[in-house]
Structures are given as C-alpha cells and as structure tokens.
UniProtKB/TrEMBL annotation:
Domain of life: Bacteria
Location(s) in or outside the cell: Cell inner membrane; Cell membrane
Keyword RNA-binding among UniProt keywords: no
Protein name (Swiss-Prot/TrEMBL): Flagellar protein FliL
Role: Controls the rotational direction of flagella during chemotaxis.
GO cellular component entries: bacterial-type flagellum basal body; plasma membrane
InterPro entries reported for this sequence: FliL
Family named by the database record: Belongs to the FliL family.
Transmembrane segments: 24-42
Keyword match Cell membrane: yes
Lineage start: Bacteria, Pseudomonadati, Pseudomonadota, Gammaproteobacteria, Lysobacterales
Keywords: Cell inner membrane, Cell membrane, Cell projection, Chemotaxis, Cilium, Flagellar rotation, Flagellum, Membrane, Transmembrane, Transmembrane helix
Length: 163
C-alpha cells in the first residue's frame, strides 16, 4: 500500500508537470491567435489586390502631335536639322482635350526644347531618352496648367531624323 507521503509526492509531481505545461499552452494559444490574425490581414490584402485587378482600367489614348517637328540647331561649324514625330499617351479624356486645346503652347515648348539640343548630345540612346524625358515634362506642365493635373502618362518619339 502506498503511504500518505508517496501519494503526496505523486500529487506534487503531477502538479509540477501541469505547471510546466502552462507556458507551453499559453505559447501555443498565442501562436494560433497570431496566425489567425495574419491570415485575416493577408486575406484582406488579397481581396483588395483582386478587386484592384478586376477594376477595369481606362484605355490608353494616343494623341499624335502632327505635323512632325522640324528644327535646326547649330553644331560646331554647320547647321543641323532635326525632325521628330511625337505622340503623347494618357488614360484621361480630359487630358486628350487639354493637349488638343493647348497644341500651340505645347508645340512652342517642344520647338524651343528641340532646337536647344546639340548633335553630340542626341547621337546616342541616352541623349534621346533624356530629351524624351524633358519633352514629357514640358507637355505635362502645359497640361497641368490647363486642367490642374499632369495626366500625360508617356511621350513617344514616333520618328527621329537628324541631318
């Protein structure tokens, strides 16, 4: 038969084992709660991304600036010519109308920009990309002045001839 001391020792051993398990149980519960919270947050982001992807995008609208620009510029001892075809792209019909309404202002800004270039500066791709960026900024400024926002997304050179 077991004595009272043996029973007491066994009860205290079981109690110690249970008290040692308590931090483990609390840790598991906390991890489960954190996992559930993370799942819910990720689910919301996924739903938002899916809704954004499902939302129809406005179509690209292209506005060619016709006729092509023809400017001359000085290069060392000779006069050079540059002919550039330009098309702007937007997703906003109001920006299309602003580009059309401001055609003389845009053309003036681009003629000034194009005629200030050098042959050496435009001889490589980096120079053309820099000019394209400057031209886009010029068009955006005019459109922004007209409608309050620079809703021109891109500017493309559709032809580029130097002589």
């Amino acid at each position: 038969m077991a004595s009272a001391e043996d029973i007491q020792d066994e009860v205290s051993t079981v109690a110690k084992k249970r008290s040692n398990r308590m931090p483990l149980i609390i840790g598991v519960v906390v991890l489960l709660l954190l996992g559930a919270g993370g799942y819910m947050v990720m689910g919301q982001h996924t739903q938002k991304a899916t809704a954004d992807a499902a939302a129809p995008k406005a179509p690209e609208l292209f506005v060619p600036l016709d006729p092509a620009f023809v400017v001359n510029f000085q290069d060392q001892d000779s006069t050079r010519y540059l002919q550039v075809g330009v098309t702007v792209m937007t997703h906003d019909p109001a920006a299309v109308q602003a580009v059309k309404d401001s055609d003389p202002v845009i053309r003036n800004a681009l003629v000034m920009l194009f005629s200030s270039q050098t042959y050496a500066g435009l001889s490589d791709t980096a120079g053309k990309v820099k000019l394209q960026t400057q031209a886009l900024q010029a068009v955006r400024k005019v459109v922004s002045d007209k409608i309050g926002k620079p809703d021109v997304d891109a500017l493309y050179f559709t032809s580029f001839v130097m002589q």
